[in-house]
């Protein structure tokens, strides 16, 4: 059986626990006092690809907001705590350790918020950041399009400035929780000149509640409607809703994706550990552990969790103590993401071997976790940057191979 203290030791080696002991104890105490009742019953529920128990998770996130646990590193004037990165990492680790419900505002908290802090105007920060931390507005990401998934420089959604308003026309797809969003941050082409492929892009903030925006939820293979396709037909947003300046969308979006491929990986680690422990227990309960091949695969799964810990800790270490600049940090995040996504898919396949292929169709409570593990993990080598893109990053920035 795996011992979470092993992960504690790795965290302790990177962060001076004596210095942060009081903060860590504050986090643990608050979670113990507030993760109760309906929230406790929904521990571990939800994920970036699962909208299960949405209303409960929104209520839980507002509970976190009341406790001032959202946007820890954000400046106090916008509702944050101005905490250190080390404190944010400790919180995320303890949050995952307590198996608290998956947060619903990941798009705003982990992606858009840091992007606005880095590139937004003062007016944009004052308008949007406090509402994000109060869980008053939900956000969706309008990046990928049909024919422009990993190659975001190929986006065709266009925006034209007319009399102080941007007019948008085009289509986006795979917009996570888009059907829940009040606003979208949308990568648009504002310069049609093909020679300005990267320099002709602009990031716009677009309100959803208007005649020119249509959002259609898409049910994924597990039955969750966690992403959507979005259509813009003369949708409007005001001139001041540009993030980072007109024509600077590529640079702004790259900073957003680097955030997604880095610190956002850490909270998944302990959830995967619990999945492995659950599969070991299921194999014993169902007699599958008597199969020598299954036993070997369970051993491989345990080894894989330890490797995931190491790769995640390398990312955390680079964030806390940069060694060779941003390239090394980005490469470490790419290695971590690549390994975690492919490993998790193999874990889902092992779950089906233990529970049987019928678990894919069986809605019984006993097989629900195995079903979702197998089905939802299929997309992990695509979202957040495809495995092919991660391998390119590793080959160019670590191995110095030609493009």
TrEMBL record:
InterPro entries: Acyl-CoA_Oxase/DH_mid-dom, Acyl-CoA_Oxase/DH_mid-dom_sf, AcylCo_DH-like_C, AcylCo_DH/oxidase_C, AcylCoA_DH/ox_N, AcylCoA_DH/ox_N_sf, AcylCoA_DH/oxidase_NM_dom_sf, Mycobact_Acyl-CoA_DH. Signal peptide: none annotated. Residues 247-399 form the Acyl-CoA dehydrogenase/oxidase C-terminal domain. The keyword Methyltransferase does not apply. The keyword Flavoprotein applies. Keywords: FAD, Flavoprotein, Oxidoreductase. Residues 142-234 form the Acyl-CoA oxidase/dehydrogenase middle domain. One of its GO terms (cellular component) is plasma membrane. Its cofactor is FAD. It comes from the Bacteria. One of its GO terms (molecular function) is oxidoreductase activity, acting on the CH-CH group of donors. It holds the Pfam family Acyl-CoA_dh_M. Residues 17-135 form the Acyl-CoA dehydrogenase/oxidase N-terminal domain. Belongs to the acyl-CoA dehydrogenase family. PANTHER family: ACYL-COA DEHYDROGENASE, ACYL-COA DEHYDROGENASE FADE29. This is Acyl-CoA dehydrogenase, C-terminal domain protein. It comes from Mycolicibacterium hassiacum (strain DSM 44199 / CIP 105218 / JCM 12690 / 3849). The lineage of its organism: Bacteria, Bacillati, Actinomycetota, Actinomycetes, Mycobacteriales.
């Amino acid at each position: 059986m795996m011992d979470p203290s092993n992960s504690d030791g790795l965290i302790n080696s990177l962060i001076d626990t004596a210095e942060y002991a009081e903060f860590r104890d504050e986090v643990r105490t608050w979670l113990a006092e507030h993760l109760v009742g309906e929230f406790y019953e929904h521990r571990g529920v939800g994920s970036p690809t699962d909208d299960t128990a949405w209303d409960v998770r929104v209520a839980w996130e507002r509970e976190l907001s009341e406790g001032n646990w959202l946007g820890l590193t954000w400046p106090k004037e916008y509702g944050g705590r101005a905490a250190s990165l080390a404190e944010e990492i400790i919180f995320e680790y303890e949050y995952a350790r307590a198996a608290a419900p998956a947060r619903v505002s990941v798009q705003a908290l982990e992606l858009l918020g840091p992007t606005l802090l880095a590139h937004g105007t003062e007016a944009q920060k004052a308008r949007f950041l406090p509402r994000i931390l109060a869980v008053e507005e939900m956000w969706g990401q309008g990046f990928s399009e049909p024919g422009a998934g990993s190659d975001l420089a190929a986006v065709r959604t266009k925006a034209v400035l007319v009399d102080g308003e941007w007019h948008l026309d085009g289509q986006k797809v795979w917009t996570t929780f888009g059907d829940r969003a009040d606003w979208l941050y949308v990568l648009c082409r504002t310069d049609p000149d093909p020679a300005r492929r990267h320099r002709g892009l602009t990031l716009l903030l677009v309100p959803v509640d208007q005649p020119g925006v249509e959002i259609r939820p898409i049910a994924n293979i597990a039955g969750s409607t966690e992403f959507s396709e979005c259509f813009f037909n003369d949708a409007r947003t005001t001139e001041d809703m540009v993030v980072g300046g007109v024509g600077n969308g590529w640079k702004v979006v790259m900073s957003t994706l680097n955030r997604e491929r880095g610190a956002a990986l850490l909270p998944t680690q302990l959830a995967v550990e619990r999945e492995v422990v659950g599969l070991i227990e299921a194999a014993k309960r169902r007699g599958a552990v008597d199969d020598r091949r299954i036993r070997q695969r369970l051993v491989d799964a345990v080894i894989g969790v330890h490797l995931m810990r190491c790769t995640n800790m390398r990312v955390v270490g680079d964030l806390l103590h940069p060694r060779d600049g941003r390239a090394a940090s980005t490469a470490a995040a790419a290695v971590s993401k690549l390994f975690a996504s492919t490993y998790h898919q193999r874990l889902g396949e092992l779950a089906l071997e233990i529970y049987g292929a019928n678990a894919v169709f069986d809605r019984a409570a006993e097989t629900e976790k195995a079903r979702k593990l197998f089905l939802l993990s299929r997309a992990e080598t695509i979202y957040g940057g495809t495995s092919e893109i991660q391998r390119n990053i590793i080959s160019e920035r670590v191995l110095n191979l030609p493009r």
